[in-house]
Task: structure prediction
Amino acid sequence: MQLGAFSISLPVKDLAASKAFYQALGFQSFGGSEEHNYLIMKNGEVLIGLFQGMFENAMLTFNPGWDQSAGAVDPYDDVHGIKAALLAKGLEITQETGGDSGPASFVVTDPDGNPVLIDQHR
Result:
């Protein structure tokens, strides 16, 4: 199973302060929108999502169909097939959005309570 691009998604209290901190560590804005309260920061192949007011806990994030630069990967394992495979393995889906095809997302939670977001944009 190929989950796609990996990043860590962090809830932040002050997006501007977090942006400045990660810029000091060598990250640059790569995507997102300060007006929409989130930024994707990149340093080499490392991605960090900064999200103000959107969720409470940090989560691992995978984007099927994308490489680490948000470039399309083809072929790729579709989010709907990944979800079906994980359900067949007995994992519980705790949140989900989207329809039966195309963009969609879902969350599974590891045994220690860490959320894992599978988020397909195409």
Notes: Residues 5-120 form a domain with the 2,3-Dihydroxybiphenyl 1,2-Dioxygenase; domain 1 fold (CATH 3.10.180.10). The CA atoms of residues 1 and 77 lie 7 Å apart. The chain has a mean pLDDT of 95.
